[in-house]
Design goal:
With 149 residues, this protein is α+β, with helices and mostly antiparallel strands. It is built from 4 helices and 9 strands. The strands form 2 sheets. It has a 7-stranded antiparallel sheet. A two-stranded antiparallel sheet has the order 3-6. The chain is globular, with a radius of gyration of 18 Å.
């Protein structure tokens, strides 16, 4: 299964502990799809939320397609996500627990359909972030030493 990656949320793994990852479809309009195919999207401040039993993606920025003058769409409008009802119910129970949230990790095309990997996350504390940085530095130093021989 070929994945054409549009954009990644790099900060997510640093800011949060990822518990589970779910795949969801995104409801988009024509110009948004064209803009996504060109890679004009940003996941930096995006998050997911369940409202009235439906899943939505907030603050997902898709730059307007320059050749679609007839449809002036809001670049950060709320977009509906498509997921099975049982999965949404399970997520609803978990996100109501204190400290859990839904963060998009990756937006991609597979078989011509726009998909998003949505992660159930718990926020890291400052000390955990420092530990992550320290581990990353140590790994980088080890890799450097291996290269030198």
């Amino acid at each position: 299964m070929e994945k054409k990656i549009v954009c990644k949320n790099r900060k997510a793994t640093f800011e949060y502990n990822i518990e589970e990852v779910y795949q969801a479809g995104i409801v988009l309009l024509g110009p948004e799809v064209k803009s996504l195919r060109e890679g004009r999207a940003n996941l930096t401040d995006a998050y997911g939320k369940i409202r009235k039993g439906e899943l939505f993606l907030y603050n997902f920025h898709i730059t307007p397609y320059p050749y679609a003058h007839h449809m002036n769409l809001d670049p950060v409008r709320t977009r509906k996500l498509l997921m099975k009802r049982e999965e949404i119910r399970r997520l609803m129970g978990k996100t109501e627990e204190r400290g859990y949230g839904l963060i998009p990790l990756l937006v991609y095309f597979t078989k011509g359909l726009a998909k998003v990997d949505l992660a159930l996350v718990k926020g890291k504390k400052k000390i955990d972030k420092r530990r992550s940085l320290k581990e990353r530095e140590m790994k980088r130093d080890l890799d450097r030493e291996r290269k030198r021989g």
